[in-house]
Amino acid sequence: MSDSEFENRDTNTGHEKEKPKERYIPPEPSDDQEVLFGGGISSGINFDKFDNISVKVSGEDVVQPVNSFEECQFRHLVADNLKKSGYKKPTPIQKYAFPSIMKGRDLMACAQTGSGKTAAFLVPIINSLLAEGCEPIVSNEFVEPQAVIISPVRELTIQIFTEARKFAHGSTIKCAIAYGGTVAIHQAQKLMRGCHILVATPGRINDFVEKGRVSFASVRFFVLDEADRMLDMGFLPAIEKMLEHPTMVPVGQRQTLMFSATFPEDIQRLASKYLNNYLFIAVGIVGGACSDVEQVIYEVSKFEKKAKLVEILRTFEGEKQLALVFVEQKRTADFIAAYLSENNFPTTSIHGDRLQSQREQALCDFKSGYMPTLVATAVAARGLDIKNVTHVINYDMPKTVDEYVHRIGRTGRVGNRGKATSFYDASFDFPIAKDLIKILQQCGQEVPCFLSDSAPTSGGFFRGRECQAYGGKDARKFNNRNEENDNDDNGFENDNQHSNSFEPAAQEEEECW
Q: Which Pfam family, an example, fits this chain (predicted)?
């Protein structure tokens, strides 16, 4: 039984605990320009280092990259919104994604976390919709969005929606959102006002499609963000259900875009079925950590963690910095948040058992600095882009190095410097040691002796799903290899060349974000 499953059971009866329900209606998003354009992360002191990151592109008729926004010839409104957002020049993924999407190509894009993936697909989509001048299609019963963007978790969905509104600000483009934990009829009513761009979680959008509130008949762009996370969470059937829906525009008549930090085997197989003559873009070390994050690892037993956490937080007490603390269990998140608050560190927490209103309030308090420390389980690890997060602390080490990379990627974003501190207990964390050493070495950072001593001498690579074949390489190149090359690395990213056929059951909408 997993930790999350255990935590959802009544300790007296052993039965599944019924989750509290609420009729939550999110507040209306602000149209104030200061709010809209002030929440993003500006490019940092190391932004120019992005120019040295290697980019590999494969596919037929590869599109030439751009080196400036001016080369893209974006519409004036889009270019102006980019400038207001603090964008000065495109990141590596944007240099290739912008022209590829604008030329109508399908895309699979791998890039490190914090490298501008969201803008890489939103900006050209909005620019194309404006160029076409399409009106939102609404009947008396359903809406037909022209762009559908699917995200695995609620908070990331809200974040993408906010970014879409920002880049479309001042235009006729209407953006809408659909996610669980909120009153469905309220979201449906807002949808019926019309929308060009719909950002949604898999469960909620499929619910609207089944009830006839949403049709895919006018989809020009279909985007899967954090695609590997979606498969980890068991959403593959939900994705296929959308792509095979009778109203969905056929392959070749729509653009399908997949963005993520990793692309394991089963996602590349999905791409071969639902993408048309796509380009594969891999930026930097796929699955690697950002070199702008200083990684520090302490050997700390589970009984010493609380004191060590307080010691670290005191080092930047009084500064306008945000600290994100990751734990493995929901009950630990609440316990540590209460403990820190008692020690005069204003702290809040987020995890899967909190109501949606509580989750959103916790993040609001954290972003504003009212609660400068946030204790979170893995629900917050993917995709969050929060200004002024200068320190990530792994109170509990994750089970896989992929999760580690995504956690520490909440800081050191878009060329800004950040710090990640991790508590390592050899009694529990030794399975991740070998991969952790590899990540540190790739970033040119010091490997502690205790980590080398506790690392398994063979095997034991706990990367997660991308331990499967292909990893960050183009599956088509792998499949087209000649027989005489069969003895090389076979396109596997990791040393343990095996395939994991386990498919997790889809998590409940209430369990994920």
A: DEAD
